[in-house]
Design goal:
Radius of gyration: 20 Å
Strand order of the largest sheet: 1-2-3-4
Strand content: 5-15%
Largest sheet: 4 strands, mixed
Length: 261
């Protein structure tokens, strides 16, 4: 599925620590690549667990959590893309075969870690919907995110029925921003995501980061509290060099050069 692209550094595996392998011998299930050249600042996370269609198993989740923790501290990363190394599949959701072998206590701990992971990557609630067809309740945040996206009535319908949605259906409902026709290479969704990343890349990184904080935190509270959160984020952005650069570039009618400071 992956094509070799120029100006890219090789995939760099990030090994998980303190977790037993579930049979994924032979390499990491999560790998990282930092793009270079004009795309410098965009980093890709490759999900590569073909034996289980990238299902969220113990090793997979451990490696992904470690990867995100490392990238969170890397100020060179401005935009993060998730990409599948398994042809025709993005992520199959929870690894129910592995979960069946867990004790009740182990399931509780794992789902808590999975919920934290979903919060980290702001995942769509759709990933958890299929669980209802297996006798499970969406446990990674689906019962909370979906009503906030679609409203209570439609969220209940989708969760109660466990209905599978196509990309086009998800787009019509507003669950995804874009739905694209597949291309011959089979990577149309990746190409659209990369184009969007290229739009975000030249923007002021601190302003983007604080804007994300203001939106995410503001959605958890009433609008008056949200306004206060926005005000605090705005205040943090005022003394930055990038804000001054943006205003100077506007005045001088030139493209700004943001440095993330």
């Amino acid at each position: 599925m992956l094509r070799v692209l120029c100006l890219l550094r090789p995939w760099r595996p990030l090994r998980a620590r303190g977790c037993a392998s579930d049979g994924a011998a032979g390499g990491s299930e999560i790998e990282v690549r930092a793009l270079a050249g004009p795309d410098q600042g965009i980093t890709e996370i490759l999900m590569n667990r073909p034996s289980a269609c990238n299902a969220l198993g113990n090793v997979f989740v451990s490696e992904l959590l470690e990867t995100l923790a490392q990238l969170r501290e890397d100020r060179q990363v401005r935009v993060l893309l998730f990409r599948s190394g398994v042809k025709g599949v993005f992520c199959a959701g929870a690894d129910l075969k592995e979960r069946e072998q867990m004790s009740e206590a182990e399931v509780g701990v794992f789902v808590q870690r999975l919920r934290g992971l979903m919060n980290d990557i702001a995942s769509s609630a759709v990933m958890g919907l299929i669980e209802t067809t297996r006798g499970l309740l969406p446990g990674a945040g689906g019962t909370q995110r979906l009503p906030r996206c679609l409203g209570v009535a439609l969220a209940k319908e989708l969760i109660f029925t466990g209905r599978r949605l196509s990309g086009t259906e998800a787009h019509v409902l507003g669950l995804v921003n874009h739905a694209v026709a597949q291309n011959e290479e089979g990577d149309a969704a990746y190409q659209r995501a990369r184009a969007l990343a290229q739009e975000i890349l030249p923007q002021a990184p601190i302003a983007v980061r604080l804007g994300k904080v203001a939106i995410d935190r503001g959605m958890e509270v009433d609008i008056a509290s949200g306004m206060a959160i926005e005000g605090m984020c705005y205040a943090q952005n005022i003394p930055t060099r990038d804000r001054l650069e943006g205003m100077a570039a506007f005045r001088e009618k030139r493209t700004p050069k943001f440095v993330g400071k």
